Structure formats: C-alpha cells, structure tokens
Amino acid sequence: MLRTLLLLLLALVPLSAGAAEKLKALIVDGQNNHGDWPKTTVMMKRYLEETGRFTVDVRRTQYTWNGGKLLDEYPLNDGRKYQSLSKPKSDPDFKPTFSDYDVVINNFGHSAAAWPKETQTALDKFVHSGGGLVVVHAADNAFSEWPQYNKMIGLGGWGGRNEKSGPYVFIDAEGKTVRDPSPGRGGAHGPQHEYQIVVRNPDHPITRGLPRSWMHTKDELYQQLRGPADKMTILATAFAAENFKGTGRHEPIMMTIDYGKGRVYHTPMGHADYSMECVGFITTLIRGTEWAATGDVTLTEVPKDFPTFETASKRSFE
Fold this sequence. Notes:
Layout: H1 2-12, E1 23-31, H2 37-50, E2 54-65, H3 70-73, E3 83-85, E4 103-106, H4 117-128, E5 132-136, H5 147-153, E6 168-171, E7 177-180, E8 193-199, E9 213-219, E10 232-239, E11 250-259, E12 262-267, H6 273-276, H7 279-294
Parallel strand pairs: 1-2, 1-4, 2-3, 4-5, 5-12
Antiparallel strand pairs: 6-7, 8-9, 8-10, 10-11, 11-12
C-alpha cells in the first residue's frame, strides 16, 4: 500500500527541465566558402549536446567542398562515403528527413551547390509547419536563387543579392529600424576584429537576462545585408565602424524570423573556430536553437565567464 502511494505521488511531480525530453537537432553541412566548416560543425554539436537539452545529428552532402584536412581531423564516422571536390557539386541524394527533428542548423555557405528541389521543398514545409531553423554566419550567403530560403533567413548577402532581393535593414543613431531600398550589392565586411554586441530587444527569451552590451571575439562583422525581412525582429546589433571599413551603421547581428508556424534564429556571427569560442556566441547559439525548436528558452543561466562591456571571453575548444 505504501509503495503504491509513493508511486502515485511521484507521478504527480512535474519533470524538471533537466529531465525533460531532449530536443532533436540536425546540423546540415558539406559545402562552404569558410574552410573551418568541418570543425565548426563539431563545435556547435558539442555545445548543444553539453547542455543535456539536445541530441544532435549531422547530415552532410556526399560531395564536399573546401573542407581540406579538417575533414580528416573531424570525421563524422557515420558509415557514409564522401568525395572531396575542388568545386561545389549538387548532391542529388542529399535528402535529410527534416520532419524527424525539432530544429535544423544550417552550416552551408557562399557558393554551395543547390539542394535538390525535393529537399528545398521539404525544408520549406518543415519550417512553415512549425519546425525550427538556425542560420549561422555564411549560411546567409547561400542559396540566393531560392526564394523561400531568402524569406526564411530574412536578410542575406553575396550570391548576386541586390535591390531586387529586398531592402538593406539596419538601425540608425536614434534607434529606429531603417529599411533602405537603395540599389547596390548585398553583403560586405571589413577586416576581422573584436566588436561590441548591443542588445536591442532585452525581453526576448533569447536575450533575456544577458548584459545589454558585451564584447564579441574576433570575427567578421557582416554589413549591408538585404532581403525580404518579413516578420523579422532584430535582437541585437553591432556597430560597423568606419575605421574597420564599415558602414558607420548599427548592423543586425542577431535576428528572429517568423515563417508560417515556424521560427528562425539567424546570427551572422561565427566566421571561424576562434569566433565560435566566444562565450557570448556559445550562449546565444544554445538559446537561439532552443527557441527555434520550441518558441521558448529554458537554458536561461548566464555563464559566469560571459563577456563584459569591455572584455571578450572565450573558451578554447579542444
């Protein structure tokens, strides 16, 4: 009788956040103009798995491009055969089952070969129906000829993007969001450097409780991104200083996009492994991925080593 009573009481106790069912994440990669991509995929996978909130799979195109020796240093060991090529090539068999996951993290980049139409349609349906998508750095350079993808990411650059792709979007000195339809190429950056992140929406689950401004480690600062920017919310910006060949404007550096019933978290941060070692990047990637998957963030603890207003903070990835 006592044992039965205890079991009934335990059944009434809600699961703690740590005991909640894990979210299923999928990282897709294989072709990227940024040569660190085999390592940065492994970094993001580890960052997410270490929280205990996610399981993470990786699906890679059969034909890889620009991975170099890092393909051997950071193998997937998934039993699949890959062919490293000197230029991008479309993989007709790249058909991940997105519907098996809660969230997809895109680590493709500029000049990546187009996905099969069936795969494009599948991602569009997945996100539109309520799935999550995370767009990291050069992923907003990719697939410029894919209209639905441009809507999903909100803003993009390079790949022939111009005024036909949508307006430039930035925040002016008065804090007002500007949508500038002026003609011109989409996408640019100056030399890499540390720069300050300024939170513009402190009440969003991804940014809630974080310092209002903090230093990010050495990275490219994307500027002059342009696109549809429909149902897009700017969470944070970075000032593109003219002494670093910048626009002199506050450029979007963390964004969310509502796409149908789905959610997209887009960060132009993350150029290289050292950029992804930033504690600010790690924290917001984790939060952004959980939000994209669920619409909320339970991983709310702010790390003790989070960067400050004046000083960047990084964790060496071994």
